[in-house]
What does this fold into?
Amino acid sequence: MLEIIFLVLVGIMLAYLVRHYVFTLTVLKNTGKGYTNCPHTVTFEPSVSILIPACNEERVIGRILKRMSELSYPINKFQVIVIDDASADATGAIADQFARSCSRIEVLHRNQSEGRRGKASALNAGLKEAKGEVVLCFDADYYPNRDIVQKLVKEFADPEVGAVQGRVIVLNEPKSLVTRLVALERIGGYRVDQEARDKLGLIAQFGGTVGGFRRDLLESLGAWDESILAEDTDITYRVYLAGYRVRYVGDAECYEEAVETWRAYWRQRYRWSRGHMQCAFKHSWNVITSRKLGLKSKIDAILLLHVYYVPILVLLSWIISVPLVLNSSPWLSLGWSVIPFSIYSFVGNSAPFFEVGTGAFLDGRTRAYWLISLLMFTFLYNIPICTKAFVDLMLSKILGRKTASWHKTAHSGDGNSYIMS
Amino acid sequence: MSCSRVILLEDKPECQRTRSLVTETVTRCSSAGYWKFSHVFFGLVVSTILSCALLVSNYLSTENSAVLIAFNFLFVSLTFPLNGSLTRKVFMLLACETVGLLWNKMLSMFASYYGKTVNVLCSFLNPFVNLIWIVTFYSITLTILEGSVRKG
It folds into this structure.
């Protein structure tokens, strides 16, 4: 019996390994072919509303608002809505200052009774004020390129595209070991993973920021679900289940301030993994029974939905292997040998070592190669994170608790030193 | 709030070349394609020969042989398509194979020398121990290939 369970677990690992292997080969084969499917002669410039939820972001909010005032998109075609989510610091005041000097920036102040209910709640409040045909979202700690709006919205010229996602690059990479490892995860996750999913017509994911939606689609879907911690994954699946697709635009680059400490990493990944697991409960059956998704999209959708369960399954396979090793099981040898190659498959952005390495090579990140081995530590760190998220989610379901509280990632503003003159 | 205060970033839309904010100059979306079919084909031939030799020789256990064979094909399919000289790629494949063989042989000799307890422990640690050389050599190969691309 144990042998069968072990082989099933190895089979699951193998499925993820093959998935990432195919992604890596796909990107290698398609490198240099460009990111967009739109003919370059097409000019598509719809009106755009940019939502920036911000709660206690006084150290970074000025940076993105300044960049918003520098965007190259036609000035009469976009509005920026800052949602000051009951900040206790000077976030609101700084945003007001920018709003006074730049007519396209608006500030929505939420008081203590309305605010602090998580990002989805803030975004929903901002959406009510949005007037654009397209709604884009940026986190307050992000710093986009000037032409990012053009690059993102041109994809909406295709009526099948319901949402777009740009590329995230770590701004404060040299800050600490954690930021360097997060940068590697981002390289694997975006340069290879997201790009391959887009090229293969699978489930490109809206990552919660540096992306956006058609406003009418978003409203018809009921906007963001405030009960889900991973509101981005939830809305991605609702877009696909509605018959639209998400396009990944790799050259629409935006810089983020990554978490700098292991504690902050834990909190962020805990939120992601628990939210992802909530989505797995919510959407798995809908994906399987959907008539809007093809077979390969369904397979990818299911694998993506359950990616945060895999560290738990790896842990389980290690535990099960103890009696198998002691009994010298003949099944163990071949199954056990899968682990070296698949072990990195299950960290944060689902990037195994060869995926990260290929992404870094394509990006010309020579020095980053030397840190790939250290991703092992983030993988090991993700095992207790995902296990705790799963146990907590199960307990909340059994005990009937509604949702977990939203632990916001604090930003130091140190990223400013990499862009300010 | 003037525009002139900021910007080390070069985000001109007309060129897709971006100055990294970190330590290196990053070139994305290179116009060069990464699929050198002739290199991949040659690499597959070499790795097939190596894998057959490994299986026939019975030099390693089934588990360790499986790791090496899987690594061979993974290595060839993921590094041989990249830009860089074929000679360097084949050299690195052979170097990886040699290190993998010696590494696993030494580990199994060590385990058998110290008895069953250590043997069981080595069985558990095997995936992690293998990872050390696999990832290290993969990183070294990418660095070497990057160097040959720059020279070229």
